[in-house]
Write a structure and sequence with these properties.
This protein folds into 3 domains: 135 residues, Immunoglobulin-like (Sandwich); 81 residues, Immunoglobulin-like (Sandwich), CATH 2.60.40.1080; 136 residues, no CATH class. It is 26% helix and 28% strand. It is built from 6 helices and 21 strands. The chain has a 4-stranded antiparallel beta sheet, with no helix packed on it. A 4-stranded mixed beta sheet has the order 11-19-18-15, with no helix packed on it.
């Protein structure tokens, strides 16, 4: 009797082995990566199944591929499925914990080649189910680098954005460690937690990100906006040189631009007055760059800025004293040091002996159409 039971047990075991072997060595399946018999499977692995014919997309469903951890009562793990001609790629929806897993690929359909002597579309090929088990072991591949994307961020005040942190290993694999990394900021202009950066007041900060024994940094600039205009940061030493600091390279010194939007007195229509003041400040800066007035470029820019003021005065019925007050205060700001004032006098001296024709103000004298500004 024992011999009979032993024969039945061997027969069942043999059938199970044959079924397992058949599922991996079926007719239309060319390869599986990672190879479940030789390759190690990491916690962030994705699986690819290559067939000998093109995959019919309609045969692929959400649960075509599932993974279930051995002895786990949780539901199976699904994930994203991608089709590339004859390759089926499966990326689990979460990292795989250390342990043994069973994977199942339900039968799918493949396109069958059309014979030359018939116009009928042949019946599709039906694959057999694929089943195998694999182990996820502790990842011992060396971590070689940590990167953050983006690594420079410009953010307006009281706003937020996100970044992604990737760990790169010696085998060229990568792992998203945004949620696992540690974060610190050099300044309280920003707060950062799990890849989310929240800005406070304007300023700059360096965010240091760490994972295992690697670190990387992200540079953050928090800027002010007024009426939709992005202000440059406050310069540290604005009067150290003749031309000063212009980090946004718009032709206006940063401290002058900040003064126009934050401190300059306005009288009637602040949005328009600031736009014209920026045009005038840019023209004044040109006088510092080219006090010899080559080809009259500086003169033309200053005349256009003045005429834009007069055009604004005309269409808004503003008295002359307001415009004159603007010109005086803004030029005092533009030529605020002895060196800058002497350079402006050099430009003014280059105009000696010349006469000019007043052509009258017009809208085209303004760099920006002020008629459309509310």
């Amino acid at each position: 009797m024992k011999n009979i039971y032993k024969s039945i047990f061997i027969l069942v075991l043999g059938l199970n082995l044959a079924h397992s072997k058949h599922s991996l060595s079926q007719k239309h399946l060319l390869s599986i990566l990672p190879n479940p018999t030789t390759d190690s499977v990491k916690e962030n692995s994705q699986f690819s199944f290559t067939f000998d014919n093109k995959i019919i997309e309609d045969s692929i469903k959400t649960h075509t591929i599932t993974i279930k951890k051995k002895k786990s009562k949780k539901q199976g793990i699904v994930g994203a499925i991608e089709i590339q001609e004859n390759i089926l790629i499966f990326k689990p929806s979460k990292l795989l914990e250390i342990g043994t897993y069973h994977i199942k690929v339900n039968p799918i359909k493949l396109e069958r080649e059309i014979q030359d002597n018939t116009k009928k579309r042949p019946h599709p090929i039906h694959t057999k189910a694929i089943r195998f088990k694999f182990k996820v072991t502790e990842d011992t591949v060396t971590l070689v680098a940590l990167t953050a994307n983006p690594n420079t961020i410009a953010l307006s005040e009281h706003n937020s954005t996100t970044l992604a942190v990737l760990a790169k290993y010696a085998d060229n694999s990568t792992l998203d460690v945004t949620q696992k990394a540690t974060y610190s900021s050099s300044d309280n202009v920003v707060d950062v937690e799990k890849g989310v950066i929240s800005s406070n007041d304007s300023g700059t900060a360096t965010i240091t990100i760490g994972y295992e024994d690697k670190t990387t940094t992200v540079q953050v600039e928090v800027y002010e906006t007024i009426e939709g205009h992005r202000l440059p940061p406050e310069p540290q030493n604005p009067d150290a040189t003749l031309l000063g600091v212009d980090v946004n390279d718009n032709g206006v010194r940063d401290e002058v631009e900040r003064w126009i939007y934050k401190e300059m007195p306005t009288y009637h229509h602040p949005e328009i007055e600031r736009v014209i003041a920026m045009q005038q400040a840019k023209a004044d800066q040109m006088a510092l760059v080219d006090p010899t007035n080559k080809e009259d470029n500086v003169l033309d820019a200053i005349h256009r800025a003045d005429d834009c003021w007069w055009y604004y005065e005309h269409i808004k019925n503003i008295d002359d004293s307001s415009v004159e007050a603007f010109n005086i205060k803004l030029r005092d700001k533009s030529f605020n040091t002895k060196n800058r004032l002497n350079t402006y006098f050099e430009y003014d001296y280059s105009l000696r002996g010349r006469s000019f024709i007043v052509t009258g103000e017009k809208s085209t004298d303004c760099d920006i159409n002020i008629n459309v500004i509310k």
